[in-house]
Structure formats: C-alpha cells, structure tokens
Amino acid sequence: MKLLQTLTLAACATLAVACADGNSTSKNSSKNDSTKSVDLSSVAYNGKIAFVRMDSLMSGYGMYIDMSDEFGKKQQKIQAELTAKGRGLEREAMEYQEKAQKGLITRYQAQSTEEGLQKKQQDIMAYRDRVMGELGQQEAAMSREIFAAVSSFLQEYNVTKGYSMILQTAGSNPVLVADPNLDITTEVLAELNKLYDEKLAAKTDKK
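User: That's the sequence. What structure does it adopt?
Assistant: Structure tokens below.
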C-alpha cells in the first residue's frame, strides 16, 4: 500500500532514542508534543540496542489499518466519481458527433456544443487535479500522525527500557545481522494496539 511505503520511508532514520534514566519531565514533554525530537546529546551509550520491524509493525497496527482503510475508501469514491464524469463527457461527445455526421445540427450549434464540451473537459481535469492534490495532503497528514504516535510511544516506552538506541528495519534500510532477542516489534505492536483500543473505547463512551 502506498501509505505503508510512505511511512516506512519517513522512518528511514532512527525511530526513537531516549535517555536510559529518563525523568518525569522528559516523559511529560513527549505527551505534550508527540513530534518533538529527543535531545541526542543527552543519550548515553550503555550497549543496549533494539530494533523494530517497521513493515510488520504498521501492517498489524490498528491505527494504521483503520486509517488506511478509510483513506482507501476515499480513493475509491473519488475514482468512481471521476470515472462517471469522464464517461458522461464521452457520451455527450459521441452524441454530438453522431448528430453532426447526420447533419442534424447547424454550424452554430456545432460550434457551441464543441465549446461546451471543451469547457466540461477542462472542468473535469481541474477537479481531478484538485481532489488528487487534497488526497495527497491527507495521505501525508495521516503518515505524520501515525509516525508521531509510534515515535511518541517509543520515547515513553524507553523511559523504563533504557535503550541507547531503537532502530527500525524497513525496505531499503534493513538490519542485516542482529540477535533476534533485540527485536521488540511484537511487544511494541501489542502496546500500541492496547493504547489504540483504549482510545477507541473512550470515543465510544462519549457517544
């Protein structure tokens, strides 16, 4: 999926790092601003490194699954709308051509019809460009929101875990050799989905 590709590219560097002895101030800071980067100068190397399989994480993350499903439905709706507009214009053009060939319209009517068809074509193309641009902006915003949620969680997670660095594997940036025990994907995914379930439950309770 395109959204997953966008997310993994956005995560091509280190996903999150935090001080092994992170205090409550840094913890609260990450809650208030999920996109705030960690001060790397404060990270002390202690030999503890872990990695997350980003593609597996995203394919199993409830927030990603729901948002990508919603985005896919928007894409399908817009595509169907554009297809309908295009076919409607094509029918009008064929009807005009048939009448013109049979001599059923005057030269003035033909000129007016052609101008009208050209205007409709331009309008459809302008509409297509606008909605596709809006879709692109929505996709980028979704990518940022999901990645920010993962990054924020990992900063919170690392307050107690105390890793010097948490890396990610994705596409063109794999960890080629690593101890399987350093893979924290399953644990992180379970915690992320737990938080997402709690968020969904809170929304349901408010209704």
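The beta strands are 49-53, 165-169.
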